[in-house]
Amino acid sequence: MFSVDDHLLHLEGEALPRDVSAAQARALLAGGARCRAPVSGAVYGTLLNDRHALEALGDAVNAPPYKAPPRAPILYLKPRNTLAGHGARVVVPGAQGLQVGASLGVVIGRTATRVAARVALDYIAGYTLVADLSVPHDSVYRPSVRFRARDSFCVIGPTVLARKHVADADNLAIHVDIEGAAPFSANTATNVRKVAQLIADITDFMTLSPGDVITTGVRHGSPVAHEGARATISIEGWQSLAVEFIAPHTAQGATA
């Protein structure tokens, strides 16, 4: 089992996450605390689960390699090296910057195999914010690992909220604020597959384990951050997730 009573927070330098109240989490983060990812299971991203992203493909969705709109979830893995927490400093590998794909993360609470949609929410321990980062690219179908799986390309947190705190995961406004760029807003209401159906469809062909995370998908038109910028990802009422973007030489100097 992976359980959350209130707000799960993993402070940097501590061996294990803490389960704290909202007020305690707010106080710790207000003091400038940096965090590790509050989860350590597998993280699965979902492609083309945003209605606007699917619509943007137009007639191309009926041409090779797609040949038709997706009939099942299209997943990709964010491997362990990508996991990072609140306050992460992420290297921007080139002048093109990094796409900041803000997504809702669904944290699985117990082993889920062939789960029916009507009971799927019972398998959720809680929810979290995910900054699913990638090098901007045109290929939606099987994008290169080097675009999505670089170090710290999956920033999670700062907390996992217990499921009881989220009344409707299918209607959450998500905001991305990047210094020097226009604010970006989206909503989980544009998901093609709602949370319960997404869990049902995924567990029809694979088992999800306690602590695993499913992202409900990157929003179409997600903004791009460049080195020197800071980004804040938020859902109203939740603790915000902060990411700093740095140049490769800055990272080398920090580790020297």
UniProtKB/TrEMBL annotation:
Domain Fumarylacetoacetase-like C-terminal: residue ranges: 43-241
EC number(s) given by UniProt: 4.1.1.68, 5.3.3.-
InterPro entries named in the record: FAH, Fumarylacetoacetase-like_C, Fumarylacetoacetase_C_sf, HPA_isomer/decarb_N
Domain of life, per lineage: Bacteria
Gene3D superfamilies: Fumarylacetoacetase-like, C-terminal domain
Listed SUPFAM superfamilies: FAH
Pfam families noted in UniProt: FAA_hydrolase (PF01557)
Molecular function GO labels: 5-carboxymethyl-2-hydroxymuconate delta-isomerase activity; 5-oxopent-3-ene-1,2,5-tricarboxylate decarboxylase activity; metal ion binding
Cofactor(s) needed: Mg(2+)
GO terms classed as biological process: small molecule metabolic process
Keywords for this protein: Isomerase, Lyase, Metal-binding
NCBIfam families: HpaG-N-term (TIGR02305)
Family per record: Belongs to the FAH family.
Record's protein name: 5-oxopent-3-ene-1,2,5-tricarboxylate decarboxylase/2-hydroxyhepta-2,4-diene-1,7-dioate isomerase
